[in-house]
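If your schedule permits, I should be very grateful for your opinion on a structural question. I have a record of one protein: its chain in single-letter code and its fold written as discrete structure tokens. Would you kindly read the sequence against the tokens and tell me how you understand this chain to fold? Thank you for your consideration; the sequence and its tokens are set out here.


***
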Amino acid sequence: MTDPSPASLRPRDPAFVGRDTLIDDVRKRLLDGDRVVLHGPDGVGKSETAAEYAHRFATDYDKVLWVDAGIAHIVDTTAEAFESAFRGRDRRLLILDDLTDPVDALPDGAGHILVTSRSDRGWAGIAEPVPVSPFARDEGVELLRGRLARLTPDDAEQVADALGDLPLGLRLAAATLAETAMAPAAYLETLAG
């Protein structure tokens, strides 16, 4: 087996929590031959989930390519590069992160394609839409307490509730609370303010 090129991936979050059922669903769909688009609003954890998938299964692929799809004209260029770099390899993974518009110019042939997008519209016939939702409350509490051990379960639950269990908001809250040593009650007041 060749190097799956994990260096080309988005870095793995060592404190990643939850999403096991979602990652298992993505894996099943990709193995069934579907292209998959993880969709949902900003901050819900689409990119982090795609990165965790790629890191968990990197050794199952000969090559992995992560592309920030926000770059102009990326799809045609990526399709050509993907086909050229991976020609003759069946075990390949292409991740297009933050693709704003569905396109039918995705590479053909063997290999898995995983897309993240804010929208689920227009993907019929191109990729299987898989929604990414905010964390379940216990996942949000686990994330907060894993990054900030001084939080009580009750404090973590209140912060998670105030932020709607959005993973990005929870990570930012944990960083703010850690850097400022602000009390959780004061932080919640600033959110409400």
